[in-house]
Design a protein that fits this description.
It is a single chain. The protein has 284 residues and is an alpha+beta fold. It has two domains: 149 residues, NADH Oxidase; 115 residues, putative nitroreductase (tm1586), domain 2 (NADH Oxidase, 3-Layer(aba) Sandwich). It is 31% helix and 20% strand. The chain is built from nine helices and ten strands. The strands form two sheets. Strands 1, 2, 3, 4 and 5 form a five-stranded antiparallel sheet that branches. A five-stranded mixed sheet has the order 6-7-8-10-9. Strand 6, helix 7 and strand 7 form a beta-alpha-beta unit. It starts with 7 loop residues before the first helix and ends with a strand. The mean pLDDT is 91.
């Protein structure tokens, strides 16, 4: 999955959520490049059938974008998608959408994931969502405004967007409870850090990784009660897809060959924790 000349690792470090956009139009050349990228997405880890497109937004004179409950200001376009219902549809959606977002970052655009703060019916109609399809989230896209609005700053503060869990809280050696020593991660230190930097709904950072003899097992540790707060979609499964995207793309950029596997290692896991997938290294 190519992103032009931009380094995936650099793009992950550069990307941040923006809710405030300038009135400048994206332009046909950039829009066409983004659409071309979306049309050439490879199959995601679990093989879900998904499609993505750009949706036009209605922006009244006040700047608030209709269908976003006042969260987004000024954005003229949104990346929206539809994924066929399946066992790991949300994870695949997150994986593919994040790849598109990183490409948009490469094109000089600002972006913002929206999972619980957009009117699904409006975007579903624009994408002609089928009965057997889901739309877990959309993404605002456009040129960033000169400064963040008050609403933008409140959201970043409330979500703790500038704060990240420590590596000892999310990466483990062989089993849960044993922190993964940075000196033992070798060439995978950077892909693991790219997971740590991944965006997530309300900055909950639900991913946990257990490293075991060349395989990195990805687990989801749910935030208690979050599923009742956001009922429209299982956003923490989408978050797992985002984390997998960061890890997989970083490995590819560094020449670390591997594949996604689905065999549960049968480890003892903490409460509210479930297995998602494993990344198995392939020796040259």
């Amino acid at each position: 999955m190519k992103h032009g000349k931009g380094s995936i690792i650099e793009l992950i470090r550069e990307r941040s959520s923006w809710r405030s956009y300038s009135s400048e139009e994206i332009g046909a050349d950039i829009e066409d490049e983004l659409k071309t990228f979306m049309s050439r997405l490879p199959s995601p880890p679990f093989g879900s059938d998904a499609r993505f497109g750009l949706v036009d937004a209605k922006v009244p004179e006040r700047g608030e974008v209709l269908g976003t409950y006042g969260v987004i200001r000024g954005a003229r376009k949104f990346i929206a998608g539809a994924v066929k219902k399946g066992e790991r549809d949300y994870e695949d959606y997150g994986y593919l959408m994040e790849s598109i977002i990183l490409h948009a970052t490469h094109l000089g655009l600002g972006t913002c994931w929206l999972g619980g703060t957009f009117r699904r019916s409006r975007f579903a109609a624009a994408m002609e969502l089928g009965e057997n399809e889901r739309m877990p989230a959309v993404c605002a896209v456009g040129f960033r405004a000169g400064k963040r609005t008050v609403v933008d700053r409140i959201f970043r503060t409330g979500a703790g967007s500038a704060g990240r869990k420590g590596r000892d809280e999310i990466f483990f050696d062989g089993e849960f409870g044993i922190p993964l020593d940075e000196n033992k991660t070798g060439p995978y230190d950077v892909p693991l850090e790219m997971v740590r930097l991944a965006p997530s709904a309300s900055n909950k950072q639900p991913w946990r990784i257990v490293a075991d003899e060349g395989t990195f097992h990805f687990f989801l540790t749910r935030s208690r009660g979050y599923d009742r707060l956001i009922k429209a979609a299982d956003l923490q499964r989408v978050d797992m897809g985002i984390a997998m995207c960061h890890f997989g793309l970083a490995c590819a950029e560094l020449g670390l060959r591997g594949r996604w596997v689905g065999e549960n290692p049968g480890l003892d896991v903490p409460g509210l924790t479930e297995y998602v997938a494993g990344w198995e290294s392939m020796r040259r």
